[in-house]
Specification:
Length: 209
């Protein structure tokens, strides 16, 4: 419906997981902000945060909570309601490995979220498919698919849905003494390297119609 959802880790002395809905309205010249909602009263881990929203307004967020059990790899699922949200359902320990510098996207064809991140045990980029139980809103993930045998640097991935169950994942790959911009085209199991070294710690990608 044209609204923007911002998921963030609040700064200052209290590092909580929060969300807010922004509505640009029909004129596009003014923005109405809803009330920020606290999803988790604890630090969700800035390096591990990843989130996206489905075509029906359902939101999925991954983070590593600082609450007991400390370091739990959790997912929160909720929905946009007006300029606010429904309550969020939390699923703890969805994975066992530290999952950093990732991104998440909704895929209409799959009807599921695609989540990619760096496995911090192997330092290799991987991807997983996230399924949301329609009754309980509990989140579950399939097994990791490793994107390359090279390691990923400490720079965040970007994942983009292409339609027809395909997706595109971009990340910085560490090949010994060199760093390359690399991309992975999901479902075709192909990886390509973009020539040249990185000039920033962010990769921006988009698709043409």
């Amino acid at each position: 419906d044209g609204k923007v959802v911002v998921i963030y880790r609040s700064g200052g002395t209290v590092d909580d997981l929060k969300a807010v809905v922004l509505d640009p309205g029909t004129s596009g010249t003014t923005v109405t902000s809803g009330t920020a909602v606290e999803i988790e009263d604890a630090d969700p881990g800035a390096a591990s945060l990843a989130a996206d929203i489905s075509n029906t307004g359902q939101i999925c967020i991954f983070g590593t909570t600082s609450l007991v059990p400390y370091g739990s790899k959790s997912m929160w699922v909720g929905s946009v309601s007006g300029n606010g949200f429904t309550s969020f359902t939390q699923t703890d320990n969805v994975v066992s490995v530290n999952s950093l510098y990732g991104d998440m996207t909704w895929d209409d064809t799959l009807g599921k979220f695609v989540w990619s991140y760096r496995n911090n045990s192997t330092n290799r980029p991987v991807r997983r498919i996230v399924t949301i139980n329609s009754s309980t809103l509990a989140a579950s993930v399939d097994s990791e698919v490793e994107l390359t045998t090279f390691t990923q640097t400490s720079m965040r991935q970007t994942v983009l849905p292409l339609g027809s169950g395909k997706f595109f994942i971009a990340f910085y790959e560490n090949q010994g003494s060199s760093f390359n911009r690399s991309a992975y085209l999901g479902l075709r199991q192909e990886a390509v390297t973009v020539p040249g070294g990185p000039v920033a710690d962010y990769i921006g990608i988009n698709k043409s119609t």
